[in-house]
Each structure stands twice: as C-alpha cells, then as structure tokens.
Design goal:
The protein is an alpha/beta fold. The strands form three sheets. The chain has an eight-stranded mixed beta sheet with strand order 11-10-9-12-13-16-15-14, with helices on both faces. Helix 6 links the parallel strand 6 and strand 7. The structure holds adenine. Adenine binds next to helix 3.
Length: 367
Amino acid sequence: EFGRREISLAENEMPALMALRDKYRDEQPLAGAKIMGCIHMTIQTAVLMETLVDLGAELRWSSCNIFSTQDHAAAAMAANGIPVFAWKGETDEEYEWCIEQTICKDGSPWDANMILDDGSDLTSMVHAKFPDMLETIHGVSEETTTGVHRLRAMADAGELLYPVIAVNDAETKWDFDNIHGTGQSTIDGILRATSVLLAGKNFVVAGYGHCGKGLAMRVRGMGANVIITEIDPIPALKAIMDGFRVMKMDEAASVGDLFCTATGMKDVIVRRHFDSMKDGAIVCNTGHYDCEISISDLEDMATEIFTIRDNNEAFSMPDGRRIHLLARGRLVNLASAEGHPSEVMDMSFANQFLALCRLAKEGSGYD
Ligand code: ADE
C-alpha cells in the first residue's frame, strides 16, 4: 500500500510518461513485447513499468545496484503481478541471482525480445551466459553513460550482438537527468548520511562531465567552495570558466572536507589521497559503479572500521584521523536517498518508452 500511494504521487509528477500512456493506450505498441529490465527498482521505475504493461508489454525485472531498490516500489510491482527480483541490501551473489531470475523463467531462458538496461550488466550476462537468447532479442535501450561506454567498447570489439538505443545520449535525458537529477539527489544522499553543513566547506567534485557539473553547480548553491578535479583538459577548462577551482586530486586531497566522485573511472581516490586527507573528511561516489574510491586501500589502512549511522562508516587511521565513507562507495544518491526526483526521471523514462516502442516496431530487422 505504501508503494501504491507513492506511485500515485509520482504519477502526478511524471506528466510526459502519463501522457504517453494515454496517447498509445488504444494502439498498444508494445503488444507482444517481452522486456527484461535491469534498472534501479524505484517508485519512478514502477511508473515506467506500469506504463510498459499498460501498453502491451510483459516484463521481468531486477535492479542494477545492490542498494538502490525501494522495497515498497518492488512490493507494489509484485502485488500487481509483475515478476520482480530486487530488494535493498542484496549481496553481490544475490545481485547476480536476481539478474538471472530476470533472464530465466521457471529455470529456462525466457523468450524475451527486448532489454532495458542501466549500466549494461544484464546485456553482459546475456552475452556471456545465455548466448542462444541473442537470436530472439531485437535490441536494448540503455539508460546510463557507463552502460553506453561499455556497450560501445563491446561494439568496437565486434562483440555486441544486437542493436542498442543509447537513451542516455538523448538531450532530454543527459541534459536534465545527469545534471539536475544527480545534482539534487547526490546532495540529498550526502545530507541523509551525515547531516553536515555544506556552507563554507571545501567540496571536491571528481569529474566535470554532466553529473559532476550538476553536482558542482548545486553544491555551490549551498554555499560550499567547490573544487573540481578533471583529467580531460577541455572539461577542466570549462570548469575554470564556470568559476570553479580546478586541481589534481593529489593536491585537493589535503584541502577537501567532502569528496564526491562522478567520473565513471577506476581508482580516482586511492591510498596516497587518504594519506593526506583531513580528520573527518567525508568521501562518497555518485558514479554508476563502486570502482572510483579504492575501498580496499581504505580497509587496508584502517585500524578500526565502525558504522556511525546508516550509510556512514568511519575508518580510523593509524595517526588518529577518521575518514567517513558513505554508502560503501556505491551511488550515494540511490543508496542513501531516493535517486532522482520523479519530474526528471519522467523525461528519461519517456525516452526509454519511445526507444522500446522503436525496438518493438523494427523487430529483428533493426540495424
Ligand atoms: N537513476 C537515478 N535516479 C533514479 C530513480 N529515481 N529511478 C530510477 N533510476 C534512477
């Protein structure tokens, strides 16, 4: 019931998706579509799922992150008869199991014909473990920058065996979701885990892509002194001209009070950075994967690790300093808050819906 109540609130805040529902109800463009989904199982995703079902699709679903499921959203989907395999706080093994249940029905690969992916874990599993399914799958609509990067790498290597619609690359996705969604929800996640005052703090944002840019802009609005680290000279120059200080992480490490990675890259904050951080420094990530902060380095250095409150662990260093890691380095906006607000997911998911309709229309012949 809680999930259903929140879905009804979100429906009011997602006018594009609701208008598409009305517009296409008679036409049923997704009749015959069997869609496997792997995306954060949130209330906003629930509105998308019910739109797909309303317009003819059959679904099987899992989340694309072990911490991002909103259990009441998943429960509302299950109560509506949609097979959903997701809960907040999965182990890595359970995560794999959930994706496998999305792919298999009653123990055998489902005769699915489309995929909605976020980060491309589902696509990777289908290619690696269920290659026979590639015959019937028309294509995938991919939600996020990291997923699109992975799929482009697979395509370059000649390994991608069905077409992809890069939903992330739509202007009505990245220009809003990546910037404004990430900007607001990341701050929400940090504040729920710490309750720290941002005004007057040195806030280091690693990466000045769309997500980093949105976060930097919003954190500045809260009165923080924002420092950008960026290895690509053009975005680095953009950050300077947008009025931010730009420095290497090697320099920023000792200056920052808070650090948030938004690069999509590996090992952005490592041992030598932890070595020079201030006592009480707060470290988190808002990129898709938990690879940006070296948690193994932090664990290795710590004399004691303890949980202070939800999503806030303290790592005591041998010299007495404490470093706070939020949400175990997973997406802080979804693990410690509720992800992007409905209004911005409305735009992203309208793109998802249209991409899936296109894949359904083109069928197996799409290039
Ligand atoms: N990605 C970021 N925020 C999200 C949300 N609220 N729902 C689904 N995916 C998201």
